[in-house]
Design brief:
3 copies of one chain form a homotrimer.
Chain A lengths: L9 E6 L9 H7 L9 E5 L9 H11 L8 E2 L10 H18 L5 E4 L5 H17 L8 E6 L2 H5 L1 H9 L3 E6 L1 H8 L12 H14 L2 E3 L7 E4 L2 E4 L1 H13 L5 E3 L2 H10 L4 H19 L5 E3 L2 E3 L1 H20 L1 H7 L2 H9 L6
Parallel strand pairs in A: 1-2, 1-10, 2-3, 4-5, 5-6, 6-7
Antiparallel strand pairs in A: 8-9, 11-12
Chain lengths: 347, 347, 347
């Protein structure tokens, strides 16, 4: 990681059209979100989140509404695609062409779902490249993120990621529902598997290739108990914390409350920041005294340990650069100043 | 998955010869099994399940007994092989040649154990192809399934599976005992590892290549407690349920009671079937009313969620096609009729 | 596994120089260790364990002290390296050249950290080959072990291991601290992830390629509770036992007490040895009576099961060959004699 971290703590999909009087209601609501409810990435969804008979309207809503707002994060519409159905690829090609043509300056890239093996990802990248060239955008200016939700994409994850090192590929996002359906996974009472092997590989391959890795959606939005239906905050937080522990860069949000939680978890806590700022300060002090490998609180600090402390500080600096309102709300002013002024080199 | 699912809920090995007056006792007993005791696949075992000095007799038993029964599932004899010992490969070559020559019409394929890297699997496939051609069978009519039980086969699992896309390869079966011995795994009181990474990869690669994936044998058949020795039903069920959750298609059985359990777990419960039939019925209803993405019981249903419900129904239909006695015993007649008549397309 | 097992139960790093009056204090102390405190491999550490301003002195200490002792295990100095920083590779090249030139007869190889993809490992191997040739050592006489601690090395683990089949590559050692920093893993209160997928792959790929696999360091050396600071024996033992269960050959030690624990865990317990010696004795007895597949204590014994029992005995024989003092202290004399005299072939 360098100081110019690309943030995607939250990958929030919003249906691009819903069967209400105002069909762009959820899209607009996400574009207008403030504070911790504002996602780092907003994904106007023309795929599974929008009903088949509303998809055309979803595309028009996206083209119309996105330019009306000065959204503080990135915009990544999700189009249709399927490695096993040419009809969906053709729809995706048309959606990408319209989006680049009409609002190419407003979007950071497109999200392509249900990709198969490497060849299918290369083909999706080529579709973006063609739209880019056709409408006069600079090569590489429109990004591509993909949903990893097929056995084939998981099988080729390493090869797809290596392709991503030198391409427009930006983020690898997990899609557990389609994935479980492909593999035939079953809920026998304890829920679906977490697919820990896949999550660990996603974090690793993304890291090795300089890509972002994002967890999958959590759709048990509400719980019912003792007569009350309420937002399922606990189970979503558990999932997001598990993803953060494994080094995923962000989490999928379906809902403003989920966005608040994912933004928060993927942000060091004040205690973490205090702890790691303090460790670096004490390490820098010991280094000036020339004692070399230092023991702090019973733990030996070498260059590797040091990098972990530095990650914490760099993530806070990146959030602070882009969303100063969030860091100002979350951290003590004096701590934030120490984090900003800290010397971060090991040698 | 399509409607023509290839069933292998149970991969039951039976020693092809045992040192008893009737050396084919267990083989015949498996061929005669009825109801839930009848495995989907019966594997007459000429490898580790049969003593070295009984293997020749096991081959003769298989050739003699299999044609005498109209076994309702598939027959897959397991022969000898070892990537690291040419002598075993030569034995396997002879066994495959005899089996195809004598009962090629009666068997669905052969199971080859202890394969190494891709090249070794290709060689085993070539041995089957040669026997097929030599004895006048159509290309591809004799299948090949392999036991994944060496570090090399695990290392090449993706490449082996990709080879399987266009070959006679049919099932990937886990062999944990040889595998643990190769890796040097140890039981320090909590048992051997479950090898979760391998199981997840097995499910994924098999799915990506259109192959079947089968779990490994569970050999703690009996428990002793308070003076009584009894069948270890709980621990085997735990293993089979874990495999089903991960999307493995079936489990290994060493014993008729294990076959009952594995057949049952890899079959949706009446509650699962009722739940998923009902969800599809309500989804179809909502779709007719044009509301698109639907919320059922607090969960959003999109095309991906829908596929999971459909898996349940398709598996029941496949069992019902082949073993109507089991589905009639297990499900309410009215529920089974609803499952048979349901419209299963998302759009 | 064959009878000539290469032992590395313990991979003990010792800082090659520390800022004390006697800067070689820890290195000498490890060279002099006796009994269970003596590691199988001693790693004089010129990388992260030694302060930047002490590294030159660490190299001189290693060159001076190692030849003064007749260390009973192997000596593997760790040099500097980084796939992403040419400056560290240049330092590593000079350190390797000096070590081979001055004490090439005293060391078994060098440990290279922070390797990247396969090409970087090949380059490190080439650096060792050049030093070997330059100073007149036979090709392959100086080994190479690497720390797997980057996303790239994990991504290429299979390819790196296959390269290791026919090269000087000897051991794959996990480096969790740098690894977590690369992936951005976070401790949210439950500690860092164990990276189970990586550990399982490490065990598998090492086994498939005939390499050793070694776990990562555990640096929470001390615990504080109720006013007392004490050695954290429990948590280290948990980690080492987990590694042993997965089939890793050894564990990393930072401290003599850790060496005692890792040496012990990676050595079959007297109960395991008694159990497996007894099972092989009873199996051999049954085999002589011709009953073939045998049931012992409710578990069927086939060739695969048998290999697991044999692993136990072979590991004890290997330790006994090299460190008879440890086996004499640990096992009953009569049991050790039985283990030595047992017939270990299945057929």
């Amino acid at each position: 990681m360098t100081d110019d971290i690309r943030l995607c703590r939250t990958f929030q999909t919003a249906p691009a059209a819903v069967p209400k009087d105002d069909s762009a209601k959820y899209l607009v609501s996400a574009l207008e979100a403030e504070g911790f409810q504002a996602p780092d990435w907003l994904v106007p969804d023309m795929e599974d989140g929008t009903a088949p008979n509303m998809k055309a309207e979803g595309l028009e809503n996206t083209i119309e509404k996105v330019p009306e707002y000065d959204f503080p994060g990135e915009i990544w519409p999700r189009v249709e695609w399927s490695y096993e159905d040419e009809e969906y690829c053709e729809k995706g090609r048309n959606q990408i062409d319209r989006l680049v043509s009409e609002i190419g300056d407003e979007i950071d890239g497109v999200v392509v779902p249900k990709v198969g093996r490497l060849e299918d990802v290369e083909r999706a990248a080529e579709v973006v490249a063609e739209a880019e060239a056709e409408h006069g955008y600079e090569d590489g200016s429109i990004g591509l993120s993909i949903i990893i939700e097929t056995g084939r994409a998981r099988s080729d994850l390493r090869e797809i990621s290596k392709f991503g090192e030198d391409s427009r590929l930006t983020a690898l996002v997990f899609g557990p529902v389609d994935y479980a359906a492909e593999l035939g996974g079953r809920d026998l009472g304890d829920g679906m598997p977490r697919w820990d092997g896949l999550l660990e590989a996603l974090s690793n391959e993304a890291s090795a290739a300089g890509l972002l890795s994002i967890g999958g959606p959590f759709d048990d939005l509400f719980k019912e108990r003792a007569g009350l239906t309420y937002y399922n905050a606990d189970d979503y937080a558990d999932q997001v914390e598990h993803e953060a522990q494994l080094g995923l860069d962000g989490s999928w949000s379906l809902y403003p409350k989920q966005t608040v939680q994912a933004n928060t978890v993927h942000m060091p806590t004040p205690e973490e920041l205090e702890r790691d700022v303090s460790k670096i300060e004490r390490f820098n002090e010991a280094k000036r005294e020339g004692t070399g490998a230092v023991t702090l609180d019973g733990q030996m600090v070498d260059e590797a340990t040091f990098k972990n402390f530095r990650n914490t500080v760099q993530q806070v600096r990146a959030i602070d650069d882009i969303r100063p309102a969030q860091t100002e709300e979350y951290y003590d002013e004096e701590l934030l100043t120490r984090a900003r002024e800290l010397e971060l080199s090991y040698n």
